[in-house]
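hey
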């Protein structure tokens, strides 16, 4: 928190986003903390180097640039501390390895980000950690899945691709009674729309690649932890020395200043688009937790402060060719992984090939949309023409 203006006891979120992680007085008055590049940090005397005296010790342990983002994120999440990682997935691996050891049992939601599942099934298994996947809708029923050696439960809400809502406080209550740690991948909501540690999460993960960047121009991960878990998290970070590059951290800080405004616009645009899609004859279902029709809407209303720009739909049955005709001809929606930038994206997806605790049988092709900051009318015209191609392709084949 900057010294300008003086710290009020209670400041709003937008003020916090503008001021957190900045000390202009330490940067010759310049508004932003600059990009500190560096490995070596010099110590003035033998006594200083032998006793590791000084605020910074070596590039991998942190610089003023990385510290600025860490402290800002700690303020924003209400955590005890934050560590950074070179990608969102790296943040997931840091969080997991900080609280697991050989012989432990891990519970992971079946709706988890797919590369997280790959990490559990390959790396964690190799090092003696057993993973069980659970139904994301389990709620307090997680109690029946806990084993004496269950040390961590990984949650994600809404679920990747399919948008199941998890009752995080209900799960956290039960898991804490057991003595285990609750981890959450909070990338969809960011701490602005879901304050993870207030809701019972011990370790929260954010892919800064998404809304913190806002520009599809960097890869970054953040892990915040409460008092109980931060020491082990920091030790794991130091052990791996998996530090992000200074330019990416600088860009993330720059993105953070405008994150609330961008998120609000993504929310507004995505909600409008979700309602428009719900009224289309080609669409069977819209999977957006802020819509009253979503099965997890009550949980969203109870625990979340808003929604972001990412949601999915299920199409009424159509051929693969019709789907390709729709998607291949889109002019404004790009097709590609990741999201959270200023641009609109769409991907086709199918969870049925890899989920193990639940069945994904939507009854039609599924699409995930990220709604960007373009003019909504243009986006709707693009999709409208796409739906026309879809209908024509199937009509011709019939
Ligand atoms: C994108 C994403 C990640 C991974 O972030 P990268 O920076 O791409 O590695 C992790 N979790 C969720 C929910 C994501 O959407």
């Amino acid at each position: 928190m900057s010294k300008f203006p003086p710290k009020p006891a209670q400041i709003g979120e937008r003020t916090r986003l503008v001021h957190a992680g900045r000390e202009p007085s330490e940067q010759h008055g310049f508004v932003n903390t600059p990009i500190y590049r560096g490995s070596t940090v010099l110590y003035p005397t033998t006594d200083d180097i032998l006793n590791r005296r000084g605020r910074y010790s070596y590039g991998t342990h942190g610089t003023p640039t990385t510290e600025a983002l860490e402290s800002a994120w700690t303020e924003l999440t209400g955590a005890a501390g934050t560590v950074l990682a070179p990608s969102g997935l790296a943040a997931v691996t840091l969080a997991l390895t900080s609280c697991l050891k050989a012989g432990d049992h891990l519970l992971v939601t079946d709706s988890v980000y797919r590369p997280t599942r790959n990490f559990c099934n390959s790396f964690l298994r190799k090092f003696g950690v057993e993973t069980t996947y659970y139904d994301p809708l389990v709620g307090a029923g997680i109690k029946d899945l806990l084993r004496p050696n269950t040390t961590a439960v990984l949650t994600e809400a809404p679920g990747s691709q399919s948008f199941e809502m998890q009752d995080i406080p209900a799960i956290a209550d039960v898991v804490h009674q057991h003595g285990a740690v609750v981890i959450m991948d909070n990338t969809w909501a960011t701490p602005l729309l879901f304050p993870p540690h207030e809701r019972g999460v011990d370790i929260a993960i954010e892919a800064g690649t998404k809304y913190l960047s806002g520009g599809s121009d960097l890869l970054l991960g953040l892990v915040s932890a409460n008092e109980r878990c931060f020491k082990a998290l920091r030790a794991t970070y130091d052990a791996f020395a998996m530090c992000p590059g200074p330019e990416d951290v600088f860009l993330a800080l720059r993105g953070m200043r405008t994150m609330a405004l961008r998120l609000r616009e993504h929310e507004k645009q995505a909600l409008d688009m979700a309602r428009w899609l719900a009224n289309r004859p080609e669409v069977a279902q819209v999977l957006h937790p802020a819509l009253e029709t979503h099965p997890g809407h009550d949980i969203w209303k109870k625990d979340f402060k808003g929604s972001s720009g990412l949601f999915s739909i299920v199409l009424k049955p159509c051929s693969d060719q019709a789907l390709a005709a729709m998607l291949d001809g889109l002019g404004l929606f790009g097709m590609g992984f990741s999201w959270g930038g200023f641009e609109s994206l769409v991907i086709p997806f199918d969870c049925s090939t890899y989920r193990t605790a639940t069945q994904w049988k939507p009854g039609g092709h599924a699409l995930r949309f990220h709604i960007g900051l373009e003019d909504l009318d243009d986006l709707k015209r693009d999709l409208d023409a796409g739906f026309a191609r879809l209908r024509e392709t199937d009509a011709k084949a019939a």
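The first helix runs from residue 13 to 19. The domain at 8-256 is CATH 3.40.640.10 (Aspartate Aminotransferase; domain 2).
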